[in-house]
Amino acid sequence: MSPYNLHPRFKTQYDANNQEFSISGVIRPQAIDELGPSLALLRDAIGRVRGVLYVNVRRLAQMNNAAFHAFSRIILDACRARPDLKFVVITSSVVGWTSRKFGRLSGIEPNITVEEYDSEFYPGQGFLEEGGFVPILRTQTKMTWRHERAILPRHGMRPGVVMADICCGIGDFAVLVQKEFQPSRIVALDHSISSLDYARRVMREFDIRGIEYTYGDASEMLLDEAQFDLVTCRHSLQIFNRPELILKELYRICKPGGRVYITNEKNSHCLGEPRAESIRWTYNEVAKLFAHFEMDVELGPKSRRYLIEAGFDDIRVETFTVTNLDGDPQDFADVIVAWADVYAGEMATKRGDGPEFVARFRQGFQDHIFAALHPKGYAGWPIWVASGRRPQ
Amino acid sequence: MGSVLHDPAGEPTFEPMIQIDMEIKTFVSAWKHCDYVSTYIARMISQNRSDSVRHSNLFSSAFNELLEVAFRTRHADGELACRVSRHGATDRIELTFPCMPEERQFYQEAASQVAGFEARERYLNSVSGDLAPSREVVLLELAVDYDATLRVEEADGDAITLVMDLPLEGLQH
Questions:
Q1: Distance CA A9, CA A17 (A)
Q2: Which of B106, B93, B159 is nearest to B134 (CA)?
Q3: What's the CA gap between B156 and B173, in Å, rounded?
Q4: A interface mutation test: which of B34, B43, B51 has the most A CBs within 10 A?
Q5: What's the structural domain count of chain B?
Q6: pLDDT of the residue at A8
């Protein structure tokens, strides 16, 4: 157990630009006097706004009834005094009690609405988060694992570590780590309920123990700070529009002296022979397509900068390339087929790409598959691995 | 999972998981003990739930309210015992603490109101009212927001036991 924190464990803020009052942390006062400045801030915010006041409780981990009543009282009074004013309470689907508790307020005053925040925060991520991508994710992990199992010990992996795998997806990496390195505990977190359901089913079917799958938002986790020796986050910073927020959280939950391990791609560097030009053109376009949806699949080589700016030291960076020569070339080809389906399918359609572009775009994937399966061909998918130590 | 065991009275058997005892004087010496105990026990018993972090957050939230209720006891001597046990998807908290005779009656009445069908309406009325939440309202909220069931049992001496069943595994996201 960490020692009890005597410092204030909650924060209230008012952002005038967004007309947003936010409450975060753990609020369990004995007496309402302890909330005096925060309640005054809310009253002041109500006095300043016109139209709508957003009340953001997404990062509110705990609030006792005394505090809930004190804040609610002010909001309910304001509804009666100012019928022109509307309140929108933003809760998180991750913190189970908030939507229920704050949801009661809308039953009392129609000017209060409660919205559960969800994955819309991450534009475009839905392409990859839900749906039929599971088999291909498994194949991808199988291909990268051949390399990562040798790389991980250089980045802090060892038997007995307490580990978190953030953005764990379907949990296959956590399972492989559990079998290979026997950490004492793995907490695996993801924001996709369907992926977690899959991961839990696999765990049950294969009688795997020692992995705790948890639903959560990587940028605002309920996990306590400084509790993991190793925090992994693979292929994920690149699909968030604000990777620095995730890194801040990875830093927070990592123990001082522990390491954060990230992997990312630089998609425009995917390569193949023969038909190199067509392949290069298509993967350059992949990078632009993701950029359109605020995702940076060119992030790999930027990992060092991100880790430095997040406050890590002893930064280690290396690269490896998954190729058609690792195991069965058909696995490589299957992954490209899946990429083509999503990138040249749903994503291109959503961006509004015309048939001519899509045809050329698809051709590059076809050529990459051709290179992978060609008896004399070579096809590659480069990955950047980086880790940093949280200073003591 | 597997078969369900029942005791002779027909109630399912709850398997004990953890218990913390302390002098009531020690407990009421600092408000933060409610937070500390609820957070600690929540973490300990949530490890093998399907979503340990979410379960721990919900359990701590509900259990802290119950501890805050016990914190306000007017009886200055005796022991506080927090016992948690489990049957399937339901966790049971048994909180034994000393209380005055008039408080005993209050808790018995409060528990019967929590079980009533109008619990939700009573709770909403209290939220829209001016008064700070009473112990009764806190217990109502546990029923309304966490689907908790509550009963009061007699304990030795001047003590009573609040028994709260929390089906948190079944609460939807």
A1: 25
A2: B106
A3: 40
A4: B51
A5: 1
A6: 64
Q: Among residues A233, A356, A243, A220, which one has the least CA distance to residue A290?
A: A243
Query: What is the C-alpha separation between A335 and A329, in angstroms, rounded?
Result: 10
B71 located within any domain? yes
Instruction: Tally A–B CB contacts below 8 A.
Output: 92
- Is residue B111's pLDDT more than 80? yes
Structural domain of B59: 15-170
Q: What is the pLDDT of residues A297-353, one digit of tens each?
A: 999 999 999 999 999 999 999 999 999 999 889 999 999 998 998 899 989 999 999
pLDDT classification of B4: cutoffs 50, 70, 90 = very low
Which residues of chain B neighbour A220 with C-beta distances below 8 Å?
none
In this structure, what CATH number is given to the domain that contains residue B133? Answer: 3.30.565.10
Q: Is B108 helix (H, G, I), strand (E, B) or coil?
A: helix
Domains of chain A by range and CATH?
10-117 (3.30.750), 126-389 (3.40.50.150)
Helix B119-128 with B135-146: angle, nearest 10 deg: 120
Nearest chain A residue to B135 by CA distance is A65
User: Model confidence over A32-49: pLDDT tens digits?
Assistant: 999 999 999 999 999 999
Q: How confident is the model at residue B1 (pLDDT cuts 50, 70, 90)?
A: very low
Could you count the other beta carbons within 10 Å of the beta carbon of residue A141? Answer: 19
